[in-house]
């Protein structure tokens, strides 16, 4: 279980974006998180993926409270959570080929490279793997980002508006890859989107982010 | 009456080691009071088509065909003619990611005033407030700097800038990207108001749900070609081209199944129908490129339509 409890977070202590928010993502479940722009969905996603330190509250993974955020997050927790961002272009190093992008988590953790297996999973062809980010479309780049997020076999996957830049077919394809991964590994998925039609189809249950406070799931 | 008629438009880019077939043989027309949505996945040539109409293509582009705006061929016109008669005055562009197109150090009002100064003589110049109102903005919103604008407000400022010269046609390039449902609804309503006002709107989008709510007609583009053009409800409810059907079937409120395979690279298109390698209705005929043929106002480029 990936749990956020009593999270107050933002970018200025006097003006938190989210106040006292609780959210739980169970293993094997897909939890949708909806809400208007500016309601703090992405901030909560960053806290849950240990990329942003909250002002108050805690994140726990499988019952253990995580002791640090960002570079202080212990590796065994950090690598349990995979993240997908809204804009694939802004989340890959433009100097890397797609092959390097997908290999990076394994390389950084001294694990064997799974690029061929992962690229097959997301249907990227070998000629695309040799290209850099500016030579592929948003959809192809997001496929590479999904392969990268799955490289360390995370127990939880946080998808922050990952379909915004994608056409309908690529959206359906990537959601299908995530569902397959989930049924194989029992991973928990947090699916953040303002597309309520998509969340109703994809998620087991949908939580609403309110500007004030969110009810517990 | 003025209108836009695009005939056999093709755009090729020459790169050191390749030739990109970005737009191939595209024909369509657009009349005032009509909204045409151009849908297709990213990288299929939609934005290149819009850039070609406004003369915004880079130097290595080769353009063929014609795009007649009344008596003027946009593809043959000089940059001077385009900038003095067309851009802003006849065709307004709402660019993709509008916040990135505003000058960060000046208020929205300063930028809108500048546009109005260039586009209208002093005697007949509308005030910035009037133009902003048409785009759904309050006068006070104009005094904000771009970083203070939310995505939806930046979108409206960009729309106001596009409307500054009172063009009869608006090209909106991916206006719904990154907007939440409520903002998309507001944008859809604003675009419909422009259409009701007698303007033509060319909506470029990958968002089929938004296209369904705004467009009178939908043109589906695949690998640089139009594969299906028809009334919006017909294209979405009973698509005839296998690609259009696949796109509709991948919507989350329909079957939610993706089209198998990946789109072809525009430097190396397969011979014949570009969708052939992904199509489940492919036959021997498909090695010959199908032409867009019209039947009862619904055009489809396929040898074996659904």
Task: Explain what the structure shows.
The complex is a heterodimer of chains A (217) and B (306). Chain A has 217 residues and is of the alpha/beta class. Chain A is built from eight helices and nine strands. Chain A has a single domain, classed as 3-Layer(aba) Sandwich (Rossmann fold), CATH 3.40.50. Chain A has a five-stranded parallel β-sheet, with helices on both faces. In chain A, strands 2-1-4-5 form a four-stranded antiparallel β-sheet. In chain A, a hairpin with a 5-residue loop joins strand 1 and strand 2. Chain A starts with a strand and ends in a 9-residue tail after the last strand. Chain B is of the alpha/beta class and 306 residues long. Chain B has a domain of 156 residues: P-loop containing nucleotide triphosphate hydrolases (Rossmann fold). In chain B, 28% of the residues lie in helices and 25% in strands. Chain B has an eight-stranded mixed β-sheet, sandwiched between helices. Chain B has a four-stranded antiparallel β-sheet with strand order 2-1-4-5, covered by helices on one side. In chain B, helix 4 packs across helix 5. Classes of the chains: A alpha/beta (217), B alpha/beta (306). Chains A and B meet through helix 6, helix 7 and helix 8 of A and helix 6 and helix 9 of B.
